[in-house]
Amino acid sequence: MKFDKQVRRVARWLASADHILVFSGSGFSAESGVPTFRGTGGLYDDPDILRYAHRDALEEEPEEALAWIEGLRGRLTGYEPNPGHRALARICRDHACTIATQNIDGLLEDAFEDEGLSTDCIWHIHGTLKEARCLDCNEPAEVPDDYTQARCDKCGGYLRPNVVLFGEMLPEEPFARAQEAARKADVVLLLGTSGIVHPAAALPGLARSHGAKLVEINPNETELSDICDVVIRGKTGEVLPEVLEAMG
Ligand code: OAD
Ligand code: ZN
Predict the structure, then answer these.
(1) Reduced to 3 DSSP states, what percent helix, strand and coil does the chain have, rounded to the nearest 5?
(2) pTM for the whole structure
(3) Alpha carbon of 53 to those of 37, 43, 60, 74, 80: distances in Å?
């Protein structure tokens, strides 16, 4: 009830939008128990992240880097979608949406699949832990039980998760699709992202310059709060179900 007026306004915008862009970050999965990157208890509390979650480490010390990445995967898997993921899936069921997600945990796909929805509108601009590829020949591979033990069927190289590490570019097609959606969106939902990391964080500004309204749902101020038309200072797992309900 706390956000009643803003929620109704956002619900109206979404209901009448021809295209919605969703830009999500790690806070969107926080209520599932997944750690965020920044803040207390976040992934950046581990100083080794800068060394091992880096393209150079995979090339120069692959066994150590893959062992560290196994630990990271352990911290980011084994969770269930939260009410925010489920509400977003239902919003996207009935409206044209593109989701440009920085989340690598795969929980949004789980929520879409639970609803029987296609995940084609979800673009992983920072990759996903649900895919793997060869470090040497780049061929896609089954996600292994243990990256330190697995090798590529084609060339025998090490496998790695298909996530963007430090020192790497964003995957071309997902980012191009996200930019295309930003240019045509009427409304952008910014969900649980600090908006610090570029080029991803430029997407809301791009959408705004093409006329979109920006809505941030986040308990804390972010780098993007100032350019938003509506800011709802709440958790996505609490606010999105209210928005869905208000959409009728
Ligand atoms: P951050 O850790 O930078 O930010 C998390 C955001 O989530 C913060 O703004 C929190 O206030 C917010 N938050 C926390 N709980 C929330 C909740 N229940 N509901 C809504 N918001 C909540 O995470 P990202 O923005 O995802 O890059 O970080 C961006 C990128 O930085 C990541 O994708 C990663 C990292 O370097 C790569 O992996 C390439
Ligand atoms: Zn290979």
Answers:
(1) 45, 20, 40
(2) 0.97
(3) 13, 11, 12, 14, 25
List pLDDT tens digits, range 60-88: 999 999 999 999 999 999 999 999 999 99
Residue whose CA is at the smallest distance from ligand 1 atom 11: 220
DSSP helix/strand/coil, 22: strand
Question: What secondary structure letter does DSSP report for 164?
Answer: P
Cα dihedral 114, 116, 122, 126 in deg (nearest 10): 30
Q: Which of 226, 225, 207 is nearest to 217 (CA)?
A: 225
Tell me which residues have their CB closer than 6 angstroms to ligand 1: 25-27, 30-31, 36-39, 42, 102, 126, 164, 192-194, 196-197, 217-220, 222, 235-237
